[in-house]
Design brief:
The complex is a heterodimer of chains A (about 60) and B (about 130). With about 60 residues, chain A is mostly helical. Chain A has helices at about 5-30, 35-50. In chain B, helix 1 (about 1-30) runs antiparallel to helix 2 (about 40-65) and helix 3 (about 75-105) runs antiparallel to helix 4. Chain B is mostly helical. The relative contact order of chain B is 0.16. Chain B contains 4 helices and no strands. The longest helix of chain B has 30 residues, at about 1-30. The chains are: A mainly alpha (about 60), B mainly alpha (about 130). At the A-B interface, helix 1 and helix 2 of A face helix 1, helix 2 and helix 3 of B.
Chain lengths: ~60, ~130
């Protein structure tokens, strides 16, 4: 079975993202208290920053 | 065929891994394994975790789609674009309603929060509907 470099790159990309998400989820799930005001502000700021990034621009704009 | 399967596998990994968070959380609530810190409101903790997980799923997906746009099919890009257009307002609404609930923990505010949570979780579930 021969895989193209493009396919290998996709697999590595997906697996890398998956590992990162597992780590984030585990850290987050260990926190069982309510977010502080500072944590809420940080989350909202990170979300707004992401919305302004290229990843959140529709492909036809 | 092989490429399609492997790409689907990669996307599946990203989506399911992220979704495993709230699934664990919700199942833990049912059997008592999930504990909330003293003084914390389970409604708030669950809502914060759910929004965060849904956010991780959709944000990771749109980043993944952009990074691999030349490789994924137009259907995947179309789903990503739908999420890009719909998600910001829905996440902002969910966060806003959660803040409202934290400030005033009434049954009405909880109901509004629950509705907004269902909407953002549906957005993240949309990632799993991708057919390649």
């Amino acid at each position: 079975m021969i895989m193209s470099p493009e396919t290998i790159s996709l697999i590595i990309g997906g697996a890398t993202e998956a590992v990162k998400l597992v780590q984030e989820e585990m850290t987050r799930l260990r926190q069982n208290g309510e977010n502080t005001e500072e944590q809420d502000q940080a989350f909202d700021a990170a979300m707004e920053a992401a919305f302004a990034s290229d990843a959140w621009k529709p492909s036809d704009e | 065929m092989l490429k399609s399967f492997l790409l689907k596998f990669s996307l599946f990994l990203v989506a399911v891994t992220a979704l495993a968070g709230p699934m664990t959380l919700l199942s833990g609530c049912k059997n008592g394994a999930f504990t909330v810190a003293p003084g914390a409101d389970p409604v708030v903790v669950t809502a914060e975790q759910s929004i965060s997980t849904a956010w991780n799923v959709v944000n990771t997906f749109v980043e993944f789609e952009l990074a691999h746009r030349s490789s994924v099919g137009p259907d995947v890009t179309a789903i990503a674009d739908t999420i890009r257009r719909e998600a910001p307002d829905k996440f902002r609404l969910a966060r806003s309603l959660m803040a409202s609930y934290k400030n005033n923990r009434t049954a009405e505010n909880k109901a509004n929060l629950d509705t907004a949570l269902a909407v953002v979780l549906e957005l993240s579930a949309k990632v799993q509907t991708i057919k390649l």
